[in-house]
Amino acid sequence: MTNNSIRLDHVVLWVADPVAAAGFYQEAVGLEPVRVTEFAEGKAAFPSVRVNEETLLDLAPLAFAERMTMLTGAADRAGHPVNHLCLSLSADAFDALRTRLEERGVPMSDIGHDSFGARGNAPRSFYFHDPDGNVLEARHYTD
């Protein structure tokens, strides 16, 4: 592994309803909501969900896209989705996530095998999307 001090701090996802999105990520995916009450009260610009102690998914309202003026051309690119983001879980958490998504009727891909990622080949992975169409991959590695 590369010994690098750079860490992924956050990924911003564009969502139609940040509170509903936070609910999906909490209930279906199992991530901890952050600043949802503050957002609902108008005290925070957007809520987030915590992936781990170092990484958040920020749930930005689509209306923010026009406010992306911090860099020339940013407003024209804001709102364009990424291909997908991948969550790495333990094998048990992987199975539990798939069960929660099935219980909620969330469409999922079949389970794939031996897909390459940051920690080598993952024995199992699958894809699903959130209510706003953001595509996520779930995987686990053999530890």
Automatic annotation (TrEMBL):
Keywords: Dioxygenase, Oxidoreductase. Gene3D superfamilies: 2,3-Dihydroxybiphenyl 1,2-Dioxygenase, domain 1. It comes from the Bacteria. GO terms for molecular function: dioxygenase activity. This is Dioxygenase. Residues 7-141 form the VOC domain. PANTHER family: GLYOXALASE DOMAIN-CONTAINING PROTEIN 5, GLYOXALASE FAMILY PROTEIN. It holds the Pfam family Glyoxalase.
